[in-house]
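Morning F.,

Quick status update on the modeling queue. The single chain you submitted on Monday has been processed. Sequence for confirmation:
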Amino acid sequence: MDQRTTRQRRQAFTLVELLVVIAILGILAGMLLPALAGAKAKGQAISCSNGERQLGLACLMYADDFGDRLPYNLGTAEIKQLEAQNQYLNWSTPVMNWELDADNTNSILLTTGGIGPYAGSADKTYRCPGDAVVSDIQARAGWRARVRSISMNAMVGDAGEFSRSGANVNNPYYRQFFKQAQIPQPSQIFVLIEEHPDSVNDGYFLNRPDSLRWSDLPASYHRGAVNLTFADGHLEAHRWRFASTQPPARPDSAHLPFGVPLAERGDFDWLMQRTSLDTYTPSSRY
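Structure tokens below.
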């Protein structure tokens, strides 16, 4: 055996050495991937909060142009009725579901009317980057996401047929805020919220404090937290405490409506305290 062959053998890796290197790489990857996932989640949360803050400011600019009146916040039937008449009054027009309806992906309809012009017609602001939830039928059609993951507090704005009497028939013991000036503590009442994909549908986010059940469920895309925009324009990230508030973000996972477990009502109570006032005082809508 010549010296060159001996040197080649000494320079080559043995099987044991290769296995050790592979094991080390696996350990390093296991340490790095969570950090990368965390960085991605943080980036999505920042992008989402920036977009929602922009929509919150759009609501304030809308009110400035319409005599202090907050944007229309209508239910599904009235949104569709107006859309059929080419009227786009609602703060956001698309009504979403798990089918192949065009509303789910119509970014033009998303920003037409309502607060769209005040948000620079930027359709990406209406969806959290962490929300890529679609149904099986939508995935087979090549869809990657729906257009909106944000909804508006049902007790804020003109709810159309639901609030013609001055109170909201869906929540008659809570005050309906038609105008910005009617909100006594704007920093304590939320206007916009990320909603769970199972209930985001018409963008009219409603729960009743006297029912102790979730009808519409807030989202928890940001490691168990949600972004909310308040009537004074500030944005707040709130982390939910209980698992019942955080079903997986996928179709038909929330099984709404559902009762709030008595031992886990802290999340529900926190949000209800920031939804409206629990006594209704008649006031002029105009």
